[in-house]
Amino acid sequence: MSTAVSAPGKVFLAGGYLVLDRAYTALVFALSARVHVLVHDIDTSSGVDLAEIVVQSPQFRDATWNYGYHLAEDQGGVAVIQLQGGSPAASSKNSFVETALLYALTYISSVLPKTTIKPSKVTILADNDYYSNTSSSTLPSYPRFSDFAVRLQDAHKTGLGSSAALVTAFTGAILSHYLPTSIFSLDTEEGRSKLHNLAQVAHCAAQGKVGSGFDIATAVYGTCVYRRFSPSILSSLGEPGSQGFSTRVRNIVDDTDPSVKWDTEISKNGVTIPEGMALVMCDVDCGSQTVSMVKKVLEWRKANSEDAKQLWDELQISNEILADNLRKGCMLELEEAFVAIRALIRDMSEASGVPIEPKEQTELLDAVTRDVEGVAGGVVPGAGGYDAIVLLVKDDEKTMGEINAFCKKWSEEKKGNVKLLNAKGELEGARKEDAVAYSK
Ligand SMILES: Nc1ncnc2c1ncn2[C@@H]1O[C@H](COP(=O)(O)OP(=O)(O)OP(=O)(O)O)[C@@H](O)[C@H]1O
Ligand SMILES: C[C@@](O)(CCOP(=O)(O)O)CC(=O)O
């Protein structure tokens, strides 16, 4: 039996930093660039009792991880141990995969206590836009996917949220593979909610911190207006292996604990991509230190609470106006909405001393909006910085051709590397795929 699930990457259009506080919301978009996870049963000869799951990411070198698993005592969930036999390099631990596996198997064991989890082989395939490494060769078994021929840690990420898309697709694929559809189905609202809760928990555990969770929400639900969950929801979960961990995981995933209720808000109708338009990204291939930027902005906010509140409130209003105009699809109003947001973001940059929309990005955004007729506007997405820009543009060949030509000219003049990515904004979140179609 084979199962496949894919989940999209994200682009954070508006509400960066604000979304860390539940009083504010964000406009987050799914991308056509997806991470795909395929699960295949492994045949074992009768009598052999094997408890092993082999995970591989064949686009990268040294990217095979073998895991053994067993039920921990005292309802401590499923313990997962990396075995010898995967890639030889010691550096090849994959915390996101290992943690997602532990949480998914723990959940399965909690809802189906008598089930034997059969051995399987899991294959991870990421659409090419996640990495700026250029590669001319593709995988022989999966011809749609590039062979990047480097180790994962040496790949240049484009910032589309690979770990969130991976954890979501991985969790969705493992649950779909091992659970009957009566208990878990990605096609139902209940199933999506379970996937969201489990993927948030696993992603936070693997990251070692609780962020706003917008990237997991986008990977599960696709484009939406997002209000974060209260971080306290995760605080009662305890450590894997601790007594009763398995029951606590089930309660948090199924949202059945009366004292802790999920309060994430997802509005699918709150925002869209206007007809005839596309949301595209240009990779600036520079890199920013998101974690330290967040720390510094939050420190400034704490020390200047009155000014910050005014700025945050004004930005929230501007972001809501942008969402409104995206639903209405009027070009002129959209242009104005982007200009208003960017002015406030620059105020935020200046006040906090954090390069959210740095000078170089201001120049780039101004120039592309001015020089390419089909560009309605754009922003520096998410935490901001030097990584990328996102643009709302007319979805036609002429505009895309002009943006490509602009990027080429800009890169030559500024000695940089600005490149239009193929990925475009799309509305859909995680979905089941046809596992057979991948090898075609
Ligand atoms: N294609 C893949 N195969 C296996 N593991 C992957 C893959 N993509 C991402 N991962 C896992 O996710 C980790 C990268 O997560 P990290 O939090 O550093 O990036 P991110 O913030 O999600 O990325 P981005 O810059 O795309 O937003 C990798 O170290 C690996 O554990
Ligand atoms: C700054 C922040 O609000 C957004 C970060 O977005 P990105 O990773 O730059 O796309 C942090 C968060 O929401 O966790």
Topology as H/E string? EEEEEHEHHHEHEEHHHHEEHEE
> Count the helices. How many?
10
- What CATH calls the topology of the largest domain is Ribosomal Protein S5, domain 2
**SS class:** alpha+beta
Oligomeric state of the chains in view? single chain
Shape summary: globular
Number of DSSP strands? 13
CATH top level label of the largest domain: Alpha Beta
Under the CATH scheme, which architecture of the largest domain would be assigned? 2-Layer Sandwich
Question: What Rg, in angstroms, do the CA atoms define?
Answer: 22 Å
Strand content: 15-25%
Task: State the share of residues found in helices, binned by percent.
Answer: 25-40%
Uncertain ranges: none
Give an overview of the whole structure.
With 440 residues, this protein is an alpha+beta fold. It has 2 domains: 2-268, Ribosomal Protein S5, domain 2 (2-Layer Sandwich); 277-426, Alpha-Beta Plaits. It has helices at residues 95-111, 162-178, 189-207, 214-221, 245-254, 290-303, 305-328, 331-352, 359-371, 397-414; strands at 2-14, 26-41, 52-56, 64-71, 78-83, 120-126, 224-227, 265-267, 277-283, 375-379, 388-394, 419-426, 431-433. Helix 2 crosses helix 3 (189-207), helix 2 packs across helix 4 and helix 7 (305-328) runs antiparallel to helix 8. It is globular, with a radius of gyration of 22 Å. The mean pLDDT is 94. Its EC number is 2.7.4.2. Belongs to the GHMP kinase family. Mevalonate kinase subfamily. InterPro entries: Erg8, GHMP_kinase_C_sf, GHMP_kinase_N_dom, Phosphomevalonate_kinase, Ribosomal_Su5_D2-typ_SF, Ribsml_uS5_D2-typ_fold_subgr. Pathway: Isoprenoid biosynthesis; isopentenyl diphosphate biosynthesis via mevalonate pathway; isopentenyl diphosphate from (R)-mevalonate: step 2/3.
